[in-house]
Amino acid sequence: MKQITSIQNPIIKSLLQLQEKSKVRKQTGTFLIEGKREIELAHKGNYEIETYFIVRDFFTQTELNQFPKEKCIEITREIYQKLAYRDTTEGIIAVTKSKTHALSEIKLSANPLLLIAESIEKPGNLGAILRTADAANIDAILIADPKTDLYNPNIIRSSVGCLFTNQIAIGSSEEIIDFLKLKHIAIYAATLQNSNPYHVEDYTKPTALVVGTEATGLSKIWRTESTQNIIIPMQGEIDSMNVSVAAAILLFEAKRQRGFNKSI
Fold this sequence. Notes:
Elements: E1 2-4, H1 10-20, H2 22-28, E2 30-34, H3 36-44, E3 49-54, H4 61-64, E4 72-75, H5 77-83, E5 92-97, E6 113-118, H6 123-136, E7 140-144, H7 153-158, E8 168-171, H8 173-182, E9 186-190, E10 195-197, E11 207-211, H9 220-225, E12 228-231, H10 243-257
Parallel strand pairs: 1-4, 3-4, 6-7, 6-11, 7-8, 9-11, 9-12, 10-12
Antiparallel strand pairs: 2-5, 3-5
Helix pairs in contact: 1-2, 6-10
């Protein structure tokens, strides 16, 4: 196995750039994954791993033999700690190829349930939404007019690897609305304007639930192009909740109506 022992090594410097800068991730078409579970989920999600950077002390020889030698580089604990985004130490980081996340690549069930997330700015919120989408086992999550890089390390961390377990597509609001209409999927937009309480609507047919940011809510196009606007009744002093919490409430109401099956 090749070895790198200096933080000043050009390869390590390029990894730091990849970790810290969205521009570099987009230019190279790669990103970093940290942690055993996350890398395992990326494998299951058919992500292509280019290189593994491994701290030997954290693995048995049997475990090391499972990695393709030509893709492995041994690094020191010092280098790992410089590269690692999380406080916990698992001794492995992988350089991974990004996916295109095109709408045309999404595969839907006969009775799809989708979540649309418009212009979510905080990586932690988007990561939590991805975790919720995985928990609900929905068909796909579509990200409209993204405000953050999908491969931001904080999204990977906060999604606990669910970035790799969901079908994800990215597009403009207009493109996603056209896609939903083409597929005859009803659109339920979570917004204050002209809304019915979320629990009175029927989500047992092909359904897309749409959430936006707490600060500004959904843009006008979603409010006007929706099949029906819906609202989660607020009974306290504030009039909104965290977007990932709202997404969970809506998705699991849809799942409840569907008998907690993916399709009915």
